[in-house]
Structures are given as structure tokens and as C-alpha cells.
Design goal:
The chain is of the alpha/beta class. It has two domains: 47 residues; 205 residues, 3-Layer(aba) Sandwich (Rossmann fold), CATH 3.40.50. It contains nine helices and five strands. It has a five-stranded parallel sheet, with helices on both faces. Helix 8 links the parallel strand 4 and strand 5. Helix 5 runs parallel beside helix 9.
Length: 262
Amino acid sequence: MRIFAFLFHTKMDRREFLKKAALGVAAVAATSLLEHPVVAAANEMINPQKNNRMKKIMIIDGGPRRNMNTAAMLESFANGAKEGGAEVKTVRLYDLDYKGCISCMACKLKGRASNICKFKDSLTPVLEEIAEADGLVLGSPIYFGDVTGQMRTFLERLAFPWLSYNDYSITAPKRMPVVLVETMNGTPARNNSNGYGTMEHCLSTALAKPERLIAYNTYQVKDYSRYELAGFSEEAKRKYREEHWEEDLQKAFEAGKRMAGE
């Protein structure tokens, strides 16, 4: 009615008044129609991206080298996830300044318990983003049979707040698919890898059973002639790489697409 009141109090001829009144009524009717549940549901089916948030996948690179095996596997995964329609963020742990769990117990204070680490440093925003993400990918080379120290330190900060000392349950802020990437010098028949060790149980319980991607017998360096590495045959490694490396990268790519579609 305010539309009509406004029009009556302005100077215009009858034809102009009727034209503007009709446009106003049409606008109100169109707005009401778009808000109708049936129309809204149909619009969502036609334009799902308008109403569904793009999935966000967090990739945590626990390797020290930017252009070697772990980084390449994670980049291939990221490309697959992006092709699958997901938003991807990669964090390199070696770029951050942080500590492992310091046992401050702030995450377990009565009335203020948290399943996100409360210690503030450069890892804090990463842990907060993971808590809101839709998928998690962890990648590390295997050193002395285990993931890198940076990855282990990160996992302490990630998982300890999930653990309840009341009933020993393990609960993350939200469940999500997980992929664990390992790259190693060992072969499928001969390696001493413990992978992600006991932390894999925490990840399985709190998030989901992880998918594992393992690249074996990877290059340690690009030019073996420059290093004291006589215990390894560069020729044998090259042959293995030519037969398997592109396949390993493709597996990572396909895993990225799968996670984006889950």
C-alpha cells in the first residue's frame, strides 16, 4: 500500500500512475513467487552451486623439500581435487614456526575443554582451518622408518585435544575423509616404514579410515654422482621410477578427485 500512497502524493498523469503501479505489484508478486518453497527447491536443483558451499580440502606437506617426491605427490592430489570442484589449501610445515604439544592441558580445563589446541603460535590458524575443512591430506617422506619430526609434532598438536581423559574417547571437531601420503627410499619388498604409527589410529577414530598412497623407491637426489650414495644403484632407481612414478602421481590425482566428490 505504501507504493500507492507514494504515487498518489506525487505529480503525474493517470497513465504514468497506472504504469508505475502495475510495475510495483508485479515486483511484489515476483518476489513472493521466488520465495515459495516449491520454486526455491526447483531453483536449487537447477543451480546447486549457488546454495552448496564448495568443499575445502586442507593439504599438509610435512616434507622439507619443495620440489621433490612428497611435494610432487601432494601437488598432483591438489590438481585432482581442484578438477573435482574443491577448494584446496596446501600448508608446508617447514615454513611455520611452531612447537609440539607442551602439555599445558589448556584443552582439558573444566568448563573450557576444547578439541582444538589452545596454545597460540603459527600453527594455530592451520588447526582452526582443519576443524572447519571437508577433507584432510597429510604427506611426508619416511626418514628412519617414520614421518618427519615436523609431521609428528603437528600430529601431536592436532590429535591430543581430541582425546578425552574422562572416557578415553577421541573426538575431532568434525569427521572428514583422510588421505595419508608416504614417499620413501625403500621398496615394497624391503622397507622399514612405520608410516604414521599410532597417530593413524587417532585419525581413523576421530575422522575416518584413511586412504594410504605410498610411493616406493623414490629418488633421494637428482644427481647421484655428487653424493656418497654408493649403496644405491642409480640405474636401478631410474628404471623403477620410469615404470612407477607417473603411475604414483596419477593415483594421487585420482584420489584428489575422489575426495572432492565425496
